[in-house]
Design goal:
Helix content is 55%, strand content 10%. It is α/β, with parallel strands linked by helices. The protein folds into two domains: 230 residues, P-loop containing nucleotide triphosphate hydrolases (Rossmann fold); 63 residues, Histone, subunit A. It contains 15 helices and six strands. The protein has a six-stranded parallel beta sheet, sandwiched between helices.
Length: 312
Amino acid sequence: MEHRDPVDPLRVLTGATGSGKKEVGLELARNLGAEVIGLDSVKVYRGLVVGAASPTQSEVDGVRTHLVGVVDPRETFSLGRYIDEVRSTVRQIEARGKSVLFLGGTPLYLQALLRGLFRGPPADPRLRRRLVEEAERFGVEALHARLAAFDPDAAGRILKRDFKRITRALEVYELTGRPISELQRTETRRPLDREFRVVALFCAPALLRRRQAERVDRMFAEGLVEEVRRLSEQGLLIGEPARAIGYREILAHLAGELTLQAAREAMLRSTWRLTVAQRKWFRRFPELVGVERREDSTLEELLEAVRLGFLR
């Protein structure tokens, strides 16, 4: 197919965990003839299917997807690598004459697309190992308190248990001697010089909590415990995948630290904390158009609302 100039806006469908964006996004991609690029820091890992709520083959049903299930869980997958992959993938999709739909709920990835990325120094494996050991010994909150002492701006934006972002901020400071918040203000560059149209699915809190509970119960019914056991036995649940919601709680259950019911309750609490954090992030994007999912919303109604949202 003949290459066309990339003049179309890049579409993004995001939203809170449990809002149903996967179902809506995949159907929207079918209707638009678009290819999907994942916007999710957990679904990117290979083998993390049930606990990551990754799309199954039947759900995908002809929609070409990218950056979903492509990275070995033992690898470190950085934001910088994600952006590099996105640049290449967007070029390839548009060279095929297709449009692009980003689909997922990782706000940090969304911020990098819309506002730019601070590259910073490459990761230092020895420093990373030391920070991991300190987190295991003293707790992630202790690392957050250390960050707050020299970079209160960054600490104010990062949740106290956001291990990945806390350790990256500490690493940047130790390697450069400058706070990451200062470097982000002065050295951030947009990865794609393109127009973005962003729509987010929202639900009323009571409805979202119920949907999240149904989502967690569905994961258990689909074999979450068995998936975590298998990945753990294969040595694949280390680093970031082991800290993802669902995986860390079931690992604790398998280690005898939590009953299965306690693991379920912990997953729900962690999911809601993530929801609160997502909402705070989304408020940073004035260009984001919200679409409300009501109790009686049909798929057709949501598709139409999302399509109209992309036109605003």
